[in-house]
Amino acid sequence: MPDTKAPTSLTARFGAPRHVAIIMDGNGRWAAARGLPRSEGHRRGVEALRRTVRAAGELGIGILTIFSFSSENWLRPRAEVRELMVLLRRFIRNDLAELHKNDVRVRIIGERDSLDPEIRHLLEEAEALTGGNRGLTLVVAFNYGGRQEIARAAQRIAEEVARGRRAPEAVTAELIANYLDAPDLPDPDLVIRTSGEQRLSNFLLWQAAYSEFVFLPIYWPDFDGAALEHAIAEYRRRERRFGGLIARTGS
Ligand code: FPP
């Protein structure tokens, strides 16, 4: 993977979103349209992911969050779940050194405790190895669901209230945000979903409260730097008011 460091690119100077989140949808339909097995769609999806990480770095995006496996994806046929796990393992094993070399910092969000220990270890190894990097932050949402994330935060806060460490009236939106999986990261400015579907599917429910949404009519394996630039151009045409009356820039 080529160098992803390009801090002063044109887009960075002229309003690139700081944080882009992507729902990578349509691998199965991409494969079906070609008479190929779904696994081939996922495999080509990983290639699209590589291109996207590279393009995000080149465009000066600070944070890229990808929805790589949802809490609900366990409901898929066992063989498909197994394939997705194989692809994740392979992605980390084959690409981690390259990501690290390119100064990419990997972060993981999602529920970890119930994961296969080997997968959990791999994810944590990626975080540990790249923890000091200062280039693109790649947030991998794995075994992730927005409702589950908020519920985990609520449970931890409830425990503190039950122990008398916090008053119920101290439970504010700000406090809840501090108990989410990556509380130090800014909310996504832009959420992109491929495949033409127009829904959030339990992705970043809390964090996307004021995000701009761009839905693209292409399947994820066809996504590339040009598609990312197209989505960013659309984002830059939007007027962001965050509930107020005066437009503010998102980055
Ligand atoms: C949606 O396509 C995609 C997923 C469920 C997972 C996304 C996974 C990848 C891009 C490859 C794996 C990446 C890593 C890092 C492991 P779909 O199967 O829902 O497509 P469909 O809606 O057309 O059936």
Question: What do you see in this structure?
Answer:
- The chain has 251 residues and is of the alpha/beta class.
- It has one domain: Decaprenyl diphosphate synthase-like (Undecaprenyl pyrophosphate synthetase, 3-Layer(aba) Sandwich).
- Helices cover 42% and strands 14% of the residues.
- It is built from 8 helices and 6 strands; from the N terminus they run H-E-H-H-E-H-E-H-E-H-H-E-E-H.
- It has a 6-stranded parallel β-sheet with strand order 3-4-2-1-5-6, sandwiched between helices.
- Strand 3 (105-109), helix 5 and strand 4 (137-144) form a beta-alpha-beta unit.
- Helix 3 packs parallel to helix 4 and helix 4 packs parallel to helix 5 (117-130).
- The longest helix is centred in the middle third of the chain and has 24 residues, at 78-101.
- The radius of gyration is 18 Å and the shape is globular.
- Mean pLDDT is 92; it is low at 1-13.
- Bound molecules: farnesyl diphosphate.
- Farnesyl diphosphate binds next to helix 2, helix 3 and helix 4.
Write the layout of secondary structure elements.
Layout: H1 10-13, E1 19-23, H2 27-32, H3 38-58, E2 63-70, H4 78-101, E3 105-109, H5 117-130, E4 137-144, H6 146-162, H7 173-178, E5 190-193, E6 212-215, H8 225-237
Parallel strand pairs: 1-2, 1-5, 2-4, 3-4, 5-6
Residues 24-29, 42, 45-46, 49, 68, 73, 84, 87-88, 91, 195, 220 line the site of farnesyl diphosphate (FPP).
